[in-house]
């Protein structure tokens, strides 16, 4: 069994034998390692993570339910009978509920069941593919192209392919696959209850009984078991080679990995083990900033039209990040003020409420190593909001008037001093 060694030492580099790979923090999307991360490759059945996302979204929105039943189309039926593909047998004269089709898809990567679910959600696979591409854009993915719900090559769809060329496959980059996985387990963490099941049985007690071992052999009780792995999705076709999106949680740290186009069924797990070992050996979760922390040099912001001329600001929430081991001193806070809140002179305008958001703090890495940033750089992950520590009431017209007069006479006095200086 593949195991995590507590004595593993930090490595300056990592040789992952895959066409592309990426390793990220599952909580913030912080990228810990990347290789050809934007190269477009076929994800094969890792595409089903998008089908899972859209299905779980439809259930959350009460468009369908777990116990809802559906009949099977000729398309889904014919695909399900191909045992050269991963499948459970489906009958046209039977009805199947969402839960059993979902488990067949998430655990056993059943292609006919996936098509049946896509048709149930959108009416047809062609319409479902439109939803897949639209959702990819919404999730922040940049490198993707979906032509079917399963990740199979269109030539294997028995002539039922409706989108893309006759030999096309879905395409994604490792970064986009990681974004999809990141959003899936954060938006719908219940998916892990199913993807962590090592084996299940489809239609037990019937002639269609099918044992469904999980293709993710890194689940702890399986042949390449690795402590803490609870998902996520394998994929393989002739064009894609052997790929795997894995996720693991140990203590308070979750990692997500993607390896694409390795050269064997086993290699995708071996290369994933390298990534997980690297992640736990070289990174740790650390408390970077507490709540109510004031940034040195940016403890106040000037205010106009207020009873006070400045307001104290501080972090709203504590901030924890995954960082390089032993380098906490190299992570420095940087205050970024919301310019929309400032006037042209760079000041806030009263009145201000206590707790009003005026910006955020980024954590900048100042060490010598490379920093890869985040999966979604415009996201709020890896940041904490900065808020006002007190309210500032608007000054009344009399106070504002006195300030104006004071400023007028101060200007005259300053001008007189300058003139006198010029005489000597």
Short description:
This protein is an alpha+beta fold and 424 residues long. The protein is built from 9 helices and 19 strands.
Task: Report on the architecture of this protein.
- With 424 residues, this protein is α+β, with helices and mostly antiparallel strands.
- The protein is built from 9 helices and 19 strands.
- Strands 16-18-19-14-13-17 form a 6-stranded mixed sheet, with no helix packed on it. Strands 2-1-11-10-9 form a 5-stranded antiparallel sheet, sandwiched between helices. The protein has a two-stranded antiparallel ribbon with strand order 3-4.
- α1 (48-60) crosses α4.
- The chain is elongated.
